[in-house]
Amino acid sequence: MEYAHIVVFITIDTPANARKLADKILTARKAACVNIISKVSSQYWWQGKIEKSAEVMLVVKTRAALLDELVVLVKQNHPYTAPEIIALPIIGGNPDYLAWLDSGTK
């Protein structure tokens, strides 16, 4: 089954960089809404060892058709070598919200 809408999770290093990236995503109309969640504690494998970092999470609501363009935009504006950009399908929701999401992107 193919889904029209997705939620994309992106982690980044600082609140200031999160706001800048959210602004770029919204200005480019690659998403209708970006939530910024501060104080995310991340633990992950990087270059052969476990790292621990304080990060900020962006929760991006957009259309599935825009994912490739969103990935390019994020990679061009992100300080990490391999930024987390993962998308999950929205399997349903408030039809009014989903229509608004469509109207807020291009």
Indicate the topology.
Blueprint (H helix, E strand, L loop, with lengths): L4 E8 L2 H13 L5 E14 L2 E15 L3 H10 L8 E5 L5 H9 L3
Antiparallel strand pairs: 1-3, 1-4, 2-3
List keywords for this structure.
40% strand; alpha+beta; 106 residues; Alpha-Beta Plaits; 4 strands; 4-stranded antiparallel beta sheet; 30% helix; globular
Describe this structure in words.
The protein has 106 residues and is of the alpha+beta class. The protein has a single domain (5-103), classed as Alpha-Beta Plaits, CATH 3.30.70. The protein is 30% helix and 40% strand. It has helices spanning 15-27, 67-76, 95-103, and strands at 5-12, 33-46, 49-63, 85-89. A four-stranded antiparallel beta sheet has the order 2-3-1-4. Strand 2 (33-46) and strand 3 form a beta hairpin. It is globular and about 45 Å long. The two termini are 23 Å apart.
Distance N to C terminus: 23 Å
Q: How many helices does DSSP assign?
A: 3
Largest sheet: 4 strands, antiparallel
Mean pLDDT: 96
Measured as a percent range, the helix fraction is: 25-40%
Number of strand segments: 4
Rg, Å, rounded: 14 Å
Question: pLDDT below 50 for ≥5 consecutive residues: which ranges?
Answer: none
Strand order of the largest sheet: 2-3-1-4
Structural class by SSE content:
alpha+beta
Integer count of domains: 1
Write a short abstract of this structure:
With 106 residues, the protein is α+β, with helices and mostly antiparallel strands. The protein contains 3 helices and 4 strands.
